[in-house]
Design a protein that fits this description.
mainly alpha
Length: about 80
Amino acid sequence: MLSKRKMADILYDYHVALSMARTADGGDTGQSLAYREAVLRKHDVTSAEFDSSMVYYMRHTELLEDVYKISSINFISV
């Protein structure tokens, strides 16, 4: 499972990338997947690692809330 900090960093980049994909191509799913994979490569994380960590955090919503609090600091500091 990925740490809270690692998940926060990935989710920050993930949300930015999805916004870029939606803006660039009107929400094409293929482009969104390409951006997602680029984010995971940047963080040296496999889809399986990310997906299993998301499942864990979704089952432990108090921890997911912590992750998003950390991630929101990234948004504020930009």
